[in-house]
Design goal:
By secondary structure, the chain is α/β, with parallel strands linked by helices. The protein is 31% helix and 19% strand. It contains nine helices and 14 strands. Helix 2 crosses helix 3 and helix 6 runs parallel beside helix 7. The two termini are 46 Å apart. The radius of gyration is 24 Å and the shape is elongated. The protein folds into two domains: 55 residues; 196 residues, 3-Layer(aba) Sandwich (Aldehyde Dehydrogenase, Chain A, domain 2). It has a seven-stranded mixed β-sheet with strand order 5-8-9-4-3-11-12, with helices on both faces.
Amino acid sequence: IMQSGKVDLFAFIGSSKAADSLIRQHPQPHRLRSLLSLDGKNLGIVMPDADLGVAVKECLSGSTSFNGQRCTAVKLIVLHKSIAKAFCEKFCKAVSELSAGPPFGKHAITPLPEPEKPEYLQGLVDDAKASGASVINECGGQTDRTLVFPSVLYPVTKSMRAYHEEQFGPLIAVAEYEDIDEILSHLAEVHFGQQVALFTSPKPEGSPELARILDACALSTCRVNINAQCQRGPDTFPFAGRKSSALGTISVSEVLRAVSVETMVAGKKRAEVDGISQGSSVFAPVKRA
């Protein structure tokens, strides 16, 4: 279909690799209007003054709902070193309480649709273990065919694939930071830029550190969730991304703008233009009350 050249608008949700491949098949890709929602490596930042109960609950849901297979999932959790141990203990306990089984009923973890995904996830774990990380939760990574119980992988560092790759599955990468500049550096360097979940004090007070993070996010992501997981919606909010996470914005108004092309009939005299345009379904003058 794309090779026919008859496609003028391309709306797509999937990987950037797949989108690039499809766009290249169009004989005139310059005329293709694209609205793309692509990969994400959404960051969960847990600051030293965060409410750990809230952070654990939101990061758990954000990283494991739908088996972690959604672009808006939290795919890398970065903890301030001062609260890392306490967070990990609470988080692993919460993960261990998740039920796993067939997709019938109310199981939190269900079989994955891709038969090759368990092997890929294990590859990320093996790579991280070789560089010093561990699976720190009970039953982490236990596999029955395509049913994979979530692994909490800690501490993940920049040298590991799990730090950079979008795992898109039940593997929770957890890293540490000491200085806020480490967070800012990551936001600048990462290839994706969809959302960030920022966990801090619930008190309605700002700080220089928070201001620096928000300013960096304004240039590297399209949504910052305060004390809440990364998410889609409500539909009144635009859905967008930067870098390799999106092209264009998915919202009612933006989609209407994307499929519209402004055109006009112009002349030196208004009466002349109105007269010639009579009968046109597009350019006929509007009768004003």
